Amino acid sequence: MGGLVVSAFVLSSGVLFLSCIFPVNGLSKVRGVNLGGWLVIEGWIKPSLFDGIPNGDMLDGTQVQICSVVLNKYVSAANGGGSNVTVDRDVASTWETFRLWRVSDNEFQLRCLGGQFLTSNSEDGLILATAKHPLSTETFFIERNAGRVHIRLLNGGYVQATNNHLLISTYQFQPGWDKNLATFELVIVANNLHGDYQLANGYGYDKAKMVLEEHRRSFITANDFDFLSWNGINTVRIPVGWWITQDPYPPSPFVGGSLAALDLAFSWAQSYSLKCIIDLHAAPGSQNGMEHSASRDGSVDWPSPEYISQTLEVIDFLATRIGNADPIELFQAGIGLSNVVVDLHYYNLFDPYFATMNSTQNIEFIYKMRAPQLQDLKAMNGPLVFIGEWVNEWDVQNASQYEYQKFGRAQFS
Ligand SMILES: *[C@@H]1O[C@H](CO)[C@@H](O)[C@H](O)[C@H]1NC(C)=O
Ligand SMILES: *[C@@H]1O[C@H](CO)[C@@H](O)[C@H](O)[C@H]1NC(C)=O
Ligand SMILES: *[C@@H]1O[C@H](CO)[C@@H](O)[C@H](O)[C@H]1NC(C)=O
């Protein structure tokens, strides 16, 4: 693996990340910038990427609840899935929440808490929550009118509630938008996944290819590398997704081209004397269910033996390709036989521990807890240690600029 640093499974958050590598074995200090939102899409970094998607509030992973306007009850998958479906809940919770799998702008599959899909594949037209793999009998055409929906099977019948609180798919006429048993209120309760899966599947291949080609061409350019190198930065960290190994034709819905962009980045890095850290940000199967791990619907299918071995293949691919392509650009970690680096991610966020701490306490935490920890790790004469992520953000409300600066200085010292 040469000295390529590949760090996997990181939790990204709000702001530009800076990394720094501490001097070990005579290495000089490395000051790096993360090039987030470029080859792995994170909607919060550039929300406009998603602007052109029809029904853009119904992307993969969007969580919806469905309420009958006549019965005023929510559709519920008993036990969270695996058996029948009723329309009998006054209050919607997890059994009444379905995650969308988008098939087209108007066609969707509905996934229950337990992972099963709603299906029309039953003898009497009942909708059940029993399908493991969604196909056409699990695909529903959703017609929207303000907050209301009609849900139709691909073969014609509309889904309706029955007076005895079941859900069937035998309504053969075009329902109106008044109060009738085939009209439902669609409540979108969470729409927070905006990653590569949502973008590519939301636009469909051709449009997604245009959008991503333009983004990859323009979001990070040689000028940025020039700017960084002029400003004392000597390393960039580049997040990539597992599908980069199958460029230019990765599995649907992913769009090829990220490998060519990475190759360009390496050539710019060479021109401007920057080092590169390649960060496998999205592992096969999704390591954390978040958008930057390219999860389809928030599920976490990593680790499994298969996904772990696929992950290792991705790391091998990157190490081999980059190593062969341009050994000078490899980060020379110099860590002896073990080929290990420790990538630390430090946040005073995401943990209730920090929630009640004021600015002084946050700053003292850095000096009293983190700094000694780093000193210990360095003193162990062990692997190279670097801070792959940190951020100048905290849970303190309404902090002054001065307090932010003190907090930033503490972390950078
Ligand atoms: C749903 O399934 C359960 C368990 O199989 C059964 O007891 C119940 O009667 C069913 N409900 C409806 C409305 O069919
Ligand atoms: C922060 O909390 C500590 C402990 O409660 C307190 O002594 C200190 O005055 C607080 N500082 C600020 C700036 O609020
Ligand atoms: C922060 O400031 C906003 C706006 O001035 C105010 O509404 C809010 O209560 C403040 N929050 C705290 C925790 O002081």
From TrEMBL:
Single GO MF descriptor: actin filament binding
| GO CC entries | actin cytoskeleton; cytoplasm
The record ties this protein, via CDD domains, to: beta-trefoil_FSCN-like (cd00257)
For biological process, the GO terms are: actin filament bundle assembly; cell migration; establishment or maintenance of cell polarity
Q: Where is the DUF7910 domain?
A: 55-189
Q: Signal peptide location in the record?
A: 1-26
Q: Which InterPro entries does its entry note? A: Actin-crosslinking (IPR008999), DUF7910 (IPR057232), Fascin (IPR010431), GH (IPR017853)
Keywords, A to Z, come to: Signal
Question: What's the name of the protein?
Answer: DUF7910 domain-containing protein
Organism for this UniProt entry = Miscanthus lutarioriparius
